Amino acid sequence: MQTREDIYSKLSEIFVDMFDVDEQMISMDAKLYEDLDIDSIDAIDIVVYIRELTGKKIKPEDFKSVRTVSDIVDATYDLLHKG
After folding, report:
1. DSSP secondary structure string for all residues of 10-38
2. What are the distances in angstroms from CA 29 to CA 12, 35, 47, 49, 58?
3. Which of 43, 55, 47 is nearest to 80 (CA)?
């Protein structure tokens, strides 16, 4: 099973590689839209990545309230650890 730290590390790589986010800007408290300049199209790409990472179907309501990197980590962790 993946830890929150593993998930954070993988997400950080994705932000840098796919979205050209400065690695120093990424933190658990970073706001996706305001701090990292992630737009709605980018958010869809992130959801696709998370679906690939977890191998599980993602319900839109699971990610509706996601606003920070920490929110994504928590939502992904919950998907991975649901029985």
Report:
1. HHHHHHHHHH---GGG--TT-BTTTTS--
2. 13, 9, 19, 20, 23
3. 55
What is the arithmetic mean of pLDDT over 29-50?
92
Indicate the DSSP class of residue 68: B
| Superfamily of segment(s) 4-81 | ACP-like (1.10.1200.10)
Q: What is the rounded CA–CA span in Å between residue 10 and residue 15?
A: 9
Going 26 to 29 to 33 to 38, the CA torsion angle's sign is positive
pLDDT in tens, 42-70: 988 998 888 888 888 887 777 788 999 99
pTM assigned to the model: 0.89
